[in-house]
Automatic annotation (TrEMBL):
Keywords: DNA-binding, Transcription, Transcription regulation. The keyword Transcription applies. It comes from the Bacteria. PROSITE patterns: HTH_TETR_2. Residues 24-43 bind DNA. InterPro entries: Homeodomain-like_sf, HTH_TetR, Tet_transcr_reg_TetR-rel_C_sf, TetR_C. Residues 1-61 form the HTH tetR-type domain. This is TetR/AcrR family transcriptional regulator. The keyword Cell wall biogenesis/degradation does not apply. The lineage of its organism: Bacteria, Pseudomonadati, Pseudomonadota, Betaproteobacteria, Neisseriales.
Length: 193
């Protein structure tokens, strides 16, 4: 990995551990084994670094979401279920210490620059659109139990996930996320996971 990638990786770890306001440039540079000059060569400001971190994070999660939600091998219901399970397993794989970068930054988005807030808005919109498409497919396949519109159901799933992550972090127990999957499956399809 190059210096820029090391800084982005160290920045992501810092945001996940300390939040936006708690992440310090000195610690990031020490972890990345980079100088201040290197930082300012790649990033004009802390917000530019945050945007790079978001883009790196988004690339991974958007690819995973598109892959899981576009599998033609299984029904829309199963695609949604597989995606929800992926969210749980991803947290488990990160030793239950990660959370969601989008949610963490969004909680203080009003204090952020417009560019960070706008990027988060675009990400949540894309996330909602992907889920909405699958929920609509489930509705067309007569699999959906909820009377909500696909857009409202997608918003529910996103909000339920972000809320479950908060409970998960407080409890330090994966149960909150497992309940999120079960609750979403019951809500959307009228059946437990």
């Amino acid at each position: 990995m190059g210096t820029r990638e090391n800084i982005v990786e160290a920045g992501l770890a810092a945001i996940i551990q300390q939040g936006y306001d708690g992440m310090g440039l000195e610690d990031i540079l020490k972890t990345a084994n980079a100088s201040k000059g290197s930082f300012y060569h790649f990033f004009k400001s802390k917000d530019n670094l945050v945007l790079a971190i978001i883009e790196e994070y988004e690339s991974f999660y958007t690819h995973a979401r598109k892959t899981l939600l576009s599998s033609s091998d299984v029904s829309p219901k199963q695609r949604i279920h597989n995606y929800l399970l992926f969210l749980v397993e991803d947290q488990r794989a990160h030793e239950m210490a990660r959370g969601c970068l989008y949610g963490m930054l969004a909680q203080s988005a009003n204090a952020r620059s417009d560019s960070v807030r706008q990027k988060l808005d675009q990400i949540f919109t894309d996330w909602r659109t992907h889920l909405e498409t699958e929920i609509l497919a489930a509705q067309s396949a007569n699999e959906l139990a909820t009377s909500l519109t696909p857009a409202d159901a997608a918003d529910f799933v996103i909000c339920a996930y972000e809320g479950a992550l908060i409970k998960f972090k407080v409890d330090r127990n994966i149960t909150a996320l497992e309940k999120f999957v079960d609750g979403c499956m019951r809500f959307l399809f009228g059946q437990p996971a």
